[in-house]
Amino acid sequence: MSRIHAFEFEDFKWFPKTIRNYGTDFLQFVTNKFDFYKGVAPMISEAMKKTGHNQILDMGSGGGGAWKSLSPHLMKENPELKVRLSDFYPNIAAFEKMRDYNPEVFDYSYDPIDATKVPGDQKGFRTQFLSFHHFKPEDGIKILQNAVDANQPIGIFEGQVRDVPHFFKNLFSPISILLLTPFIRPFSLGRIFFTYLLPIVPLFVLWDGVISVLRTYSVKEMEALVTLVKGHEKYDWQIGKNKTKGITVPYLIGVPKK
Fold first, then answer.
1. pTM (whole model) above 0.70
2. Residue 160 maps to a domain
3. What is the pLDDT along the chain (258 residues), one digit of tens a residue?
4. What is the number of structural domains in the chain?
5. Could you tell me if residue 140 is inside a domain?
6. Domain-embedded: residue 248
């Protein structure tokens, strides 16, 4: 299945912020409900241990991602864990909700952060969950190059594989939205309206979900991107797929060599 970099609505600046947030809120709810990234938690903990980092800079955080379920797994090995949420289109309401959930662990960047041009004062283990596929190959290389130039570790984790089963699985996402929306908090009349009465959210998530599958990089493609990063030999790279309880997570982890 060849990679196709078709458009996703949430990438457009003109796309309504409220609708984008409803979509990322849904993804945040699902990834936490099913503990989506439990299988890669040991890899992240091991990489953080190697670098001595307890600070994570999460990029493309959307509605807060899977951090509510993931952070307790990481804190077993690193009780001093700190996570800074960031995004090119920050969902401040969702970020504040995560900070309120555990202010000892979470804070956020109010200003937009471009993963290809991370400000020099933003230090820590860089992570991206469900967002690397938004970037074309040349921009994906820039993300990796920026981390290497700053001598910062990086971990990239997707939530789908580019194959036929995942393609068809995403075709049923509107049903999931219709079933799960009443359980998403905080309750919002707008969310109800744009889900059931004027179903923009289900259609938006359907399109972007299917295109996300088509955009997702294979293991070989991620390996090829790494070879184009200047100074990649100064890093130890792990690239592969983790499968835990039926959830497959492609990953790329880069840690500076000692």
1. yes
2. yes
3. 899 999 999 999 999 999 999 999 999 999 999 999 999 999 999 999 999 889 999 999 988 889 999 999 999 999 999 999 999 999 998 999 999 999 999 999 999 999 999 999 999 999 999 999 999 999 999 999 999 999 999 999 999 999 999 999 999 999 999 999 999 988 999 999 999 999 999 999 999 999 999 999 999 999 999 999 999 999 999 999 999 988 999 999 999 998
4. 1
5. yes
6. yes
Residue at 191 is within a domain: no
List the one residue out of 107, 63, 54, 66 whose CA is nearest residue 85.
Answer: 107
Residue 38: domain span: 32-165+213-256
Q: Which CATH number covers residue 224?
A: 3.40.50.150
SS (H, E, C) the chain: CCCCCCCCHHHCCCCCHHHHHHHHHHHHHHHHHCCCCHHHHHHHHHHHHHHCCCEEEEECCCCCCCHHHHHHHHHCCCCCCEEEECCCCCCHHHHHHHHHHCCCCEEECCCCCCCCCCCCCCCCEEEEECCHHHCCHHHHHHHHHHHHHCCCCEEEECCCCCCHHHHHHHCCHHHHHHHHHHHCCCCCHHHHHHHHHCCHHHHHHHHHHHHHHHHCCCHHHHHHHHHCCCCHHHEEEEEEEEEECCEEEEEEEEEECC
